[in-house]
Amino acid sequence: MKAETKEVLYTLKKTRKAFLWEYTCGIILLLLPSVLTLKGIILKSAVVNVIFGIAILSIVSAEISRAITRYKITEDKLIITHGIVKQKRRNVYFAPLGFLPSINFKQSRLQRLLNYGTVYISAAAGEENNFEIKDINKPKRVLEVIEELIERNRRRSSMSIVNRED
Question: Which helix (H) or strand (E) segment is 78 a member of?
């Protein structure tokens, strides 16, 4: 029997804002040889190649880090996919999450200014039930959406229990 595919409400991954330092360093390093040439300082081609290599590595590593972990939110679960070639997938269903003691988000001062952060969901029953949605845009909004979906699934579960008792 084929499982019913739920519509994906949100697709999330780490925001580029979380890698501001890497992008800034990469861009500065890309511009450095040109600026030095304009000032009359000529660098050896090997040095320029190393500078460009480090700049590209900085930017590419940020993009790879963004691509490694993805989150999808459907009506009844959160799907966490980790990896590019070899993938690990975890489904977290909202119905059991209705009994979680802690759903919150955290932002540093800079993250609050740039409006990104991490949503934490922790269960009382061991560390394997804890997870985070790290470095995403608008974490407060994502938290509200997850709470709303948990509540909706909790009501749906209680309605199905009442219907079974009839």
Answer: strand 77-82
For CA atoms 57, 59, 61, 67, give the dihedral sign.
Answer: negative
How much is the pTM? 0.77
Q: Which residue shows structure tokens 């079974």?
A: 164
- The answer to whether 130 touches 123, Cβ cutoff 8 Å, is yes
Mean pLDDT of 63-92: 91
Q: DSSP 3-state assignment of 107?
A: coil
Question: How is the beta sheet containing 116-122 ordered, strand by strand?
Answer: 102-106, 116-122, 131-137
Write the pLDDT tens digit of every residue in 8-54. Answer: 999 999 999 999 999 999 999 999 999 999 999 999 999 999 999 99
pLDDT score, position 97:
64
For residues 105-128, give the mean pLDDT: 84
Q: How many CA atoms lie within 13 A of 55 on its CB side?
A: 15
Residue carrying the six token digits 């330092």? 21
Let me know if 116 is exposed, middle or buried by CB neighbors in 10 A (0-12, 13-18, 19+): buried
Listed by start position, the domains of the chain span 16-65, 78-165
